[in-house]
Amino acid sequence: MKKTISRILSLALSCSLVAALFAFSGCAPKEIVNVYNWGEYIDESIFADFKKETGIEVQYRTFDSNESMYTLLAGGGADYDVVIPSDYMISRLIAEDKLAKLDFANIPNFSDINANYKSRNYDPNDEYSVAYMWGTVGLVYDPNVVTEPVTDWSPLFDEKYSGQILMFDNPRDAVAIALEHLGYSVNTTDSGELNAALALLQEQKPLLYGYVMDDIYNKLAGGEAAMGPYYAGDYVQMLEDNPDLAFALPAGSNIFIDAMCVLKNAKHKTNAEKFINFMCSPEIGLRNVDATGYSTPSGVVYDMLDDEAKSNEVMYPSQDVLDTLEGFVNLPQATLDWYNNAWINLKL
What we know:
By secondary structure, this protein is α/β, with parallel strands linked by helices. It has helices at 2-25, 46-54, 66-74, 87-95, 171-182, 191-204, 216-221, 232-238, 269-279, 282-292, 299-304, 307-310, 319-322, 333-347; strands spanning 31-38, 56-63, 82-83, 130-141, 165-168, 208-212, 227-231, 246-248, 255-262.
């Protein structure tokens, strides 16, 4: 017994000595937060400001689609705290018990989020998410090549543009465009409508330059291709490299909200909530909007925008236009299985 007590005391003293040495040497364990976000979707200079204010270091990684993010999380290969999925994927993660309920005492800037971006169907009680950005999906194109007025998705399926067309390299966005072009809801579960969309994508495949996600920047801005569907905020960024590009928003297209969430197995939950709150602060929110080209859900940040930004119809379409758009919802498992199988077959 005495030996056991002695060993315990010795161990305790050793641990205290190690901690003291770490503190004395400046090698104390770092405060960190692991953030997983879309590519080209944040002003990374913000991280230094966050560390200066809180002492917390941001470790940052990116994904290129909701589906690739989900695959990594579902496979258990991720060690992240904050993730920033889109609306429908948030619903799925909540349903699968992968997200933690937030402690909003650590996120007081949540009060600045516009009511239009709270209590949404993907998180009706505002328990798991804080809106980050919102936007739309439209057709980015070179008007020197596509000279006719663009009012729908027709150019993506037109043989005269063979070899000059880019297409989303993820199933939900690609199938949605085919569904929209056929006049169906992007949230349909009807097998006939889904199979018709798949048939249209199969017809389109020989016309494509390729399937792309973030690499659309180089291919469109660099003039390798003439058109491709993508997110409005990314189009705003592409204009810096190629100011000749144009953007069309077909009726029935997708409107989305991306939101900041904390994974249920997060190792740094409080740090994650501090990061979310920091991202919602007015100055940081404004800098992030300026850097990304996306639309802010913060009423305070929106009021800080200049008149040119507020009148930008790509970033802030009129209500009449917004009323024609449709958001994605989480789909039944049988339909999700159809998407997975259809995409595999399409890409063979």
